[in-house]
From TrEMBL:
PANTHER family: CDK5 REGULATORY SUBUNIT-ASSOCIATED PROTEIN 1 (PTHR43020), MITOCHONDRIAL TRNA METHYLTHIOTRANSFERASE CDK5RAP1 (PTHR43020:SF2). GO terms for molecular function: 4 iron, 4 sulfur cluster binding; metal ion binding; tRNA-2-methylthio-N(6)-dimethylallyladenosine(37) synthase activity. Residues 45-165 form the MTTase N-terminal domain. Belongs to the methylthiotransferase family. MiaB subfamily. The keyword Membrane does not apply. This is Mitochondrial tRNA methylthiotransferase CDK5RAP1. It catalyses: N(6)-dimethylallyladenosine(37) in tRNA + (sulfur carrier)-SH + AH2 + 2 S-adenosyl-L-methionine = 2-methylsulfanyl-N(6)-dimethylallyladenosine(37) in tRNA + (sulfur carrier)-H + 5'-deoxyadenosine + L-methionine + A + S-adenosyl-L-homocysteine + 2 H(+). It comes from Prunella fulvescens. The gene is Cdk5rap1. It holds the Pfam family TRAM. One of its GO terms (cellular component) is cytosol. It is an enzyme of class 2 (transferase). GO terms for biological process: regulation of protein metabolic process. Keywords: 4Fe-4S, Iron, Iron-sulfur, Metal-binding, S-adenosyl-L-methionine.
Length: 533
């Protein structure tokens, strides 16, 4: 299983939009930098953080900043003010790494222009690229001072102190138990409407194309108690949507409580298998989802990224029953060809995947949207294999899709045993066809919502018009509507304009492959909207 990826459609959470949109058109870039932290000690060294890639990296940025803040650092949004620049990196594709090398060239020039009266600028590479390319990063032009892998963020203050003395410093040791459970991240969601909560790290699936087990290590889960504490804190802060994060989020297994260590493993989805033996013991994802959803009836709960093998009926039943668990599922297919799926070591056939899709739609009649990941041009993929993926897109009709051309990664099983034999031009053509097919089917799926009323969580003004607001429905689809005076559904109080974090009922009037447009009807609450349906 791979990390949550940037792609050709809608991600979860507003802070990712800038980078994801750039990635969709082949222009990787960092997430927007945030304002300086108030209350920083005078004279504190200033750190500038840039986040590249997946939602897990957003969470890692929050963890790294929480550690640095406790150790006397201040945060700045101005690159020119920084004493330390840290890039939280992605290694899932070659293009993601190239974006970092390009950024380092810019920072090299910044270092050269720095006045001698100021302390030398320290540059650090954090995350997956640090884990994968430590030696090359340290030795290439001697630009980088600090290298820290995903399990080494606690060591950042020491590494930066070493770098301050003029030496390079690195820690890329992977851990079997590090989950940062005791560190409450400093949330970075704009407006405080949404937040990501990391519940587990690493992956054991060993899909043949995937670098994640080698950059983020083996699966380990946070204790449920620490997760619930973080979600309660976010609820107290007014956050209205939490996304539970993990590379393989629904294989969550909390082993921290002795009395649950002998619990039998839940069954896999029908027709699915793993490369490892069933893991006994621990509190599972269904228990966590149940507990998290009970904390705040006005807080939406999402989770990503799951593996389709881990969808027991208990999880589907919870999603169907709880009004605040979003009726939107991510079911990463990767390919529509059974032959390619076998080469990828995904553990299922096309037929088993489609059976799961039908089971999901039968179990959750109100399921609003499905999303998926696809890789085109994998080793040995034929034109017939490609057309089977096209037909899967047509048959399932996803609302949201993340689609990529295959990029071989060193250390993976594919790198050792398979040939990257699909020409670049063919990958490009096939990707274009997949994207066109996805958009056509997504437009049809979204058009079916025209005339319906959708509950929208307001995120803020539309980027294209100050007179419009933007939010997302339960299915995580962007909804645009006019910013007008609205009555409260309970008919109490004077009319007012919707604010970020408000729920608004919107009647959909038009749709495209990525966006719904509509007319706002009233402000309401999540509970009231659920009770009225």
């Amino acid at each position: 299983q791979r990390p949550v990826r940037r792609g050709f459609a809608l991600p979860a959470g507003p802070d990712l939009r800038h980078f994801l949109r750039a990635a969709a058109v082949g222009q990787p870039g960092p997430l927007p930098e945030l304002p300086s932290e108030p209350g920083s000690p005078p004279g504190a060294p200033k750190v500038y953080l840039e986040t590249y890639g997946c939602q897990m990296n957003v969470s890692d940025t929050e963890i790294a900043w929480a550690i640095l803040q406790k150790n006397g650092y201040a945060r700045t949004k101005e690159l020119a003010e920084a004493d330390v620049v840290l890039l939280v990196t992605c290694s899932v594709r070659e293009k993601a790494e190239q974006a970092i090398w390009n950024r380092l060239q810019h920072l090299k020039a910044l270092k050269a222009r720095r006045p001698r009266a100021r302390a030398a600028l320290r540059v650090g590479i954090l995350g997956c690229m640090a884990e994968r390319l430590k030696e090359e990063i340290l030795h290439r032009e001697k630009l980088v001072d600090v290298v820290a892998g995903p399990d080494a963020y606690r060591d950042l203050p020491r590494l930066l102190a070493v770098a301050e003395s003029g030496q390079q410093a690195a820690n890329v040791l992977l851990s079997l138990d590090e989950t940062y459970a005791d560190i409450l991240p400093v949330q970075t969601s704009a407006g405080g409407t949404t937040a990501f909560v990391s519940i587990m790290r690493g992956c054991d699936n060993m899909c043949s194309y995937c670098i994640v087990p080698f950059t983020r290590g083996r699966e380990r889960s946070r204790p449920i108690a620490s997760i619930l504490q973080e979600v309660r804190m976010l609820s107290d802060q007014g956050v209205k949507e939490v996304t539970l994060l993990g590379q393989n989020v629904n294989s969550f297994r909390d082993l921290s409580e002795v009395q649950f260590q002998a619990v039998a493993a839940p069954g896999l989805s029908r027709g699915f298998s793993t490369v490892y033996k069933a893991k006994q013991g621990g509190l599972r994802f269904s228990h966590l989802l149940d507990q998290v959803s009970r904390i705040d009836p006005e807080m939406r709960i999402r989770f990503t990224s799951p593996h389709p093998k881990d969808f027991p009926d208990e999880v589907l039943q919870l999603i169907q029953e709880r009004h605040n668990i979003c009726k939107q599922l991510h079911l990463p297919a990767q390919s529509g060809s059974t032959r390619v799926l076998e080469a990828m070591r995904r553990g299922y056939t096309r037929e088993a995947y489609l059976e799961l899709v039908h089971h999901v739609r039968d179990s959750i009649p109100g399921v609003l949207s499905l999303s998926s990941d696809f890789i085109t041009g994998f080793c040995g993929e034929t034109e017939e294999d490609h057309l089977q993926t096209v037909s899967l897109l047509q048959e399932v009709r996803y609302n949201i899709g993340f689609l990529f051309a295959y990029s071989m990664r060193q250390k993976t099983r594919a790198h050792h045993r398979l040939q990257d034999d699909v020409p670049t031009a063919v990958k490009k053509r096939r990707l274009e066809q997949l994207v066109a097919t996805f958009r056509e089917e997504a437009a049809r799926a979204n058009t079916a919502l025209v005339g319906q009323t959708q509950l929208v969580l307001v995120e803020g003004p539309s980027k294209r018009s100050a007179s419009e607001l933007c939010g997302r429905n339960d299915g995580n689809i962007k909804v645009i509507f006019p910013d007008t005076e609205l009555q409260d559904a309970a008919q109490c109080g004077a009319p007012g304009r919707a604010q970020p974090g408000d729920y608004v009922m919107v009647k959909v009037t038009s749709a495209s492959s990525q966006t719904l447009r509509g007319v706002p009807l009233c402000r309401t609450t999540l509970s009231r909207a659920a009770a009225s349906h």
